[in-house]
């Protein structure tokens, strides 16, 4: 059994100690914001904060990090109002969004160690792969988040993600064809 603190909650994983942290988080803790990308530690989609270090969770066995504090994208901010999350939304950084949790977690570790990172520091820290190519907006978003974290700027919160339940089942007449019973044909 491996004991960790995940998102400020003590967790005891009853898994093989060789189980990668990624799978403990996703499968045992249902923290699916940490993504499986390459499985080799190259892409960074699975990056989490382990004791203040950006760690590729697909490469770390849970038995090797016993007693550590792990923060995932879900633990960064329950209300999704962390300066990085707000800055990424304001700069329209996410496209498909798959790599964004890993990039945000890498950036959050950077900001813990460098409250005012320059472009070179950001480029050096963010080695995550984004197939959509969000890199041009990434640097300014991280710098804006740093300014907000230092209290020099306010980033307005955007609309909460999701669909209003009233809109979820709304019927758009032009997109819904009439149903036919099995005894009639569409030509009837």
TrEMBL record:
CDD domains (UniProt xref): fer2
Protein keywords: 2Fe-2S, Iron, Iron-sulfur, Metal-binding, Oxidoreductase
Domain 2Fe-2S ferredoxin-type as annotated: residue spans: 1-76
Superkingdom assignment: Bacteria
Protein name: (2Fe-2S)-binding protein
Organism of this sequence: Sphingomonas insulae
